[in-house]
Specification:
The protein has 223 residues and is an all-alpha fold. It has ten helices and no strands. The longest helix is centred in the C-terminal third of the chain and has 33 residues. It is globular.
């Protein structure tokens, strides 16, 4: 039942984002971001009832979000080449779907306090959150196979780009137009390619570094 509630909460986020973008365009993006952030937290709060030591999970969440945000800062001079997606995937692999979703959503919200909040923020929150949520569901096979992990990382770049193209389409006049969406996708193909390459590089490079350390921390602190 709790897993069903978590999935419902995750599905509610895109509904709020899309309806808010269509109804208000760029006028109330801050309100939409707050609502999306609240809905994002629901699965994580629900997970407290299933596990022990919630305070330690919160600390680990803060650490993973901080590393994700710091990585976005460090690579800011290189357009679109960022380790955020990799950190979100890694968080989900070791701590679960809810944790991955919240890491992704909060990484977008917090880092955009520096890069700039806007109507794109809720879409970034959902895109990274969704990538983390699915990675958590597939954690066992992804951790066992580097090839599968690389493929998922590449697909995540496509998913993120397509979701942001939805925002680009809605931003024009608040309506979804298939021809305009197609044009946005075609125009953003070079950016999508950068997402694919950067995600794969960062995940394959960072996963071995975090693997033993996080497993040791989980065992030591019973997370």
């Amino acid at each position: 039942m709790k897993k069903v509630l978590s999935v419902c909460a995750v599905l509610a986020v895109p509904a709020v984002v899309i309806i808010g973008a269509a109804a208000f365009q760029d006028r109330y993006y801050s309100l939409i971001s707050v609502l999306a952030a609240v809905l994002t937290c629901v699965p994580f709060f629900l997970s407290f009832e299933r596990g022990s030591r919630p305070t330690r999970r919160i600390v680990m969440l803060a650490v993973m979000v901080a590393l994700s945000v710091a990585g976005r800062f460090v690579f800011a001079p290189i357009p679109f080449f960022k380790p955020v997606t990799a950190m979100v995937i890694i968080s989900a692999l070791f701590f679960g779907s809810e944790f991955g979703f919240l890491t992704g959503a909060l990484s977008a919200l917090v880092s955009n306090m520096y890069f700039g909040q806007g109507p794109w923020t809720p879409f970034q929150m959902f895109a990274w959150g969704l990538i983390g949520f699915i990675a958590g569901l597939m954690s066992d096979p992804l951790k066992r196979s580097r090839i599968l992990l690389a493929v998922y990382s590449a697909i995540s770049g496509v998913v993120f780009s397509l979701i942001m193209d939805v925002w680009t389409t809605l931003w024009a006049d608040g309506t979804f137009n298939l021809s305009r969406f197609t044009a946005s996708v075609v125009t953003s193909l070079p950016i999508m390619l950068i997402y694919i390459v950067s995600n794969t590089i960062f995940v394959l490079a960072l996963f071995p570094l975090f693997n033993k350390k996080i497993e040791r921390l989980k065992l030591k602190y019973g997370i």
